[in-house]
Structure formats: C-alpha cells, structure tokens
Specification:
The chain has about 120 residues and is an all-alpha fold. Helix content is about 25%, strand content about 0%.
C-alpha cells in the first residue's frame, strides 16, 4: 500500500500490527495493584483476579485489556493471581490461621476403638 501511494520512502513511519496500548504506566499500576489487597480499594474480596484487574484498570486508566493479556503481563513480571501452594511441613503455628492439617495418615491406619466412644446426653 505504501509503495502504491508513492510513499515508499516513509515505509517505517507507520508501525505494523496492533497499536501498543499497554505502556509503562499501565505496567507499573498493575504491579502496584498486585502488591495491595483489593479490600484496600473498597472491593469485598481479598485476592485479585485477572478479570477484576482488567476491569479496575479500564476504569482507572481508560485502557481495556483482556484477561489473557493481563495474565501474560503478570507472568512477564513474575507475578500471578493464583495463590502460592503451602506445603504442610512449611505451615507455622498461627493462632489466626483457619487451617487444619492432618499428617502421617496411611491407608493401613485403623482407628482405635477406644477413641470413638459416644455418650448420649439426656
């Protein structure tokens, strides 16, 4: 097209492909959002999802980016919306934790009949 219009010498002035809409400001804000809880911004949930990051950034910066692209950007930054799995042996005793960890159970384990006594209260 450029050659037909007599502008072959300006072939490099119009970049090819989709325009780049994610700039450094967008990336920095995405990184900043990931370092804070959504609750800090008035949302009712504790963890970001790519969908909510996309919605929030569209409202805040006016740039609409799809969920897949948000995940791609997070991966490039070494971030993820997925929780980090915690190994049972890495758990520390925490009075505020609402977790129950049961270790050392084997298939051959049989319950001790003495532990399963029930008494009715009348």
């Amino acid at each position: 097209m450029v050659a037909k219009s007599g502008e072959a010498h300006n072939w490099n002035t119009s970049p090819l492909g989709r325009p780049k809409i994610v700039d450094d400001q967008y990336r920095e804000r995405l990184k900043e959002l990931m370092s804070h809880s959504p609750k800090d911004l008035g949302y009712s949930f504790r963890r970001w999802t790519a969908q909510w990051l996309s919605k929030h950034l569209a409202k805040e910066l006016g740039v609409e980016v799809g969920v897949r692209h948000i995940n791609r950007l997070l991966k490039e930054m070494g971030l993820s919306t997925r929780p980090i799995p915690v190994e049972a042996n890495e758990l520390k005793h925490d009075n505020n934790a609402n977790r129950l960890v049961i270790n050392d159970l084997t298939e051959a384990s049989e319950p001790n009949p003495g532990l399963w006594q029930f008494h009715s209260i009348n």
